[in-house]
């Protein structure tokens, strides 16, 4: 009974809608890579399936990026002409409908007799064209080709936005490295130097920790890492800071094993810990407690860094998160901006603080997020 119901599920219109959306979803990942010859070539088959034409070509000012459809002698007859066919639309940005006198090759067996040439536009600029070849033209084919070209334009624009986002993240990361390194390097080397004569073995161990910390922080790998690797680098940082502060710095870690493999943006935890140490201990004479938590929250991981120091004026924190230069909270604005760039505005930093009440900084990340993969 169940099998018979499934067999007749959906109207023809439902099935056609599903087929169209499914075909578009197959082309989308390739177009999100941008209009490179490889990406266009992989997407072209699915675009031709959407239009149901004998062949399609994707061309830019450099020539034919991709061709899919009739092959053999028919392809050689038409592929070389595709650039010339595309040239007018590349210049004007207007759809062109070409008849047999412009397209046909003279072979009566060739299914290519007409072509619809539609622009692919990003930021009001024609970057390429989609050429749909068929035995005959129709108003429906013209509209369909224009709609597919508009959809491709949207995917290409998203690819450009992704590139801009990646460039912005790389710039933020470079800025963060430049911001942290001078402050930390001076203090770490000073702490190591203090042990060179009194405890050479400890000085050696600290120097190795410093080397490993620097190697991680300045690596040229991807933009993402695992929470496990990030926490290991935090551990190196804290070993060096404890050499500096001694028994004045105590640390508690409460880490759920389930979240250690979660991929997160590179260098988002260590700056928060550095901020906690700096504002929790520097300028005071008492003992400072730093608590680092990583908790499993179903589909998300929640990470927090808390200190029992002097706290801050909430207005100072708002300035830090907005990136105003007058704020000295290390990395808060940078980390907040990168989290929002990757996951959206719902995933920025949450800061709980008040003067003489300590500070807690927390954030959530999805355990699985498109495009977020830890690099080796």
Automatic annotation (TrEMBL):
<keyword id="KW-0808">Transferase</keyword>
<dbReference type="InterPro" id="IPR003594">
    <property type="entry name" value="HATPase_dom"/>
</dbReference>
<protein>
    <submittedName>
        <fullName>Two-component system LytT family sensor kinase</fullName>
        <ecNumber>2.7.13.3</ecNumber>
    </submittedName>
</protein>
<dbReference type="GO" id="GO:0000155">
    <property type="term" value="F:phosphorelay sensor kinase activity"/>
</dbReference>
<dbReference type="GO" id="GO:0016020">
    <property type="term" value="C:membrane"/>
</dbReference>
<dbReference type="Pfam" id="PF02518">
    <property type="entry name" value="HATPase_c"/>
</dbReference>
<dbReference type="InterPro" id="IPR003018">
    <property type="entry name" value="GAF"/>
</dbReference>
<dbReference type="Pfam" id="PF01590">
    <property type="entry name" value="GAF"/>
</dbReference>
<dbReference type="Pfam" id="PF06580">
    <property type="entry name" value="His_kinase"/>
</dbReference>
<feature type="domain" description="Histidine kinase/HSP90-like ATPase">
    <location>
        <begin position="261"/>
        <end position="369"/>
    </location>
</feature>
<dbReference type="InterPro" id="IPR036890">
    <property type="entry name" value="HATPase_C_sf"/>
</dbReference>
<dbReference type="InterPro" id="IPR050640">
    <property type="entry name" value="Bact_2-comp_sensor_kinase"/>
</dbReference>
<keyword id="KW-0418">Kinase</keyword>
<dbReference type="InterPro" id="IPR010559">
    <property type="entry name" value="Sig_transdc_His_kin_internal"/>
</dbReference>
């Amino acid at each position: 009974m169940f099998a018979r119901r499934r067999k007749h599920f959906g109207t023809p219109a439902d099935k056609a809608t599903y087929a169209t959306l499914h075909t578009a979803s197959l082309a989308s990942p390739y177009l999100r890579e941008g209009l490179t010859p490889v990406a266009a070539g992989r997407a072209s088959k699915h675009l031709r399936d959407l239009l149901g034409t004998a062949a399609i070509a994707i061309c830019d000012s450099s020539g034919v990026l991709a061709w899919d459809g009739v092959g053999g002698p028919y392809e050689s007859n038409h592929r070389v002409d595709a650039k010339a066919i595309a040239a007018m639309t590349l210049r004007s940005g207007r759809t062109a409908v070409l008849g047999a006198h412009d397209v046909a090759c003279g072979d009566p067996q060739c299914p290519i007799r007409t072509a619809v040439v539609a622009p692919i536009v990003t930021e009001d600029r024609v970057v390429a064209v989609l050429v749909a070849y068929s035995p005959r033209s129709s108003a429906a084919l013209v509209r369909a080709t224009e709609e597919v070209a508009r959809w491709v334009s949207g995917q290409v624009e998203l690819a450009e936005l992704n590139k801009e986002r990646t460039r912005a993240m790389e710039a933020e990361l470079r800025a963060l490295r430049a911001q942290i390194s001078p402050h930390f390097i001076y203090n770490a080397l000073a702490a190591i130097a203090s042990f060179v004569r009194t405890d050479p073995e400890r000085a050696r161990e600290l120097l190795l920790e410093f080397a490993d910390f620097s190697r991680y922080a300045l690596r040229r790998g991807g933009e993402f890492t695992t929470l496990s690797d990030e926490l290991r680098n935090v551990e190196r940082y804290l070993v060096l800071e404890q050499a500096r502060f001694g028994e004045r710095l105590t640390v508690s870690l409460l880490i759920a094993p389930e979240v250690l493999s979660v991929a997160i943006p590179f260098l988002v935890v260590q700056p928060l810990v550095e901020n906690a140490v700096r504002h929790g201990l520097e300028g005071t004479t008492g003992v400072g407690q730093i608590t680092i938590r990583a908790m499993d929250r179903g589909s998300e991981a929640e990470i927090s860094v808390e200190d029992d120091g002097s706290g801050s004026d909430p207005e100072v924190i708002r300035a830090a998160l907005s990136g105003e230069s007058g704020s000295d909270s290390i990395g808060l604005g940078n980390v907040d901006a990168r989290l929002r760039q990757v996951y959206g505005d719902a995933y920025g930093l949450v800061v709980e603080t008040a003067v003489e009440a300590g500070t807690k900084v927390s954030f959530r990340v999805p355990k699985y997020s498109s495009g977020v993969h830890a690099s080796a």
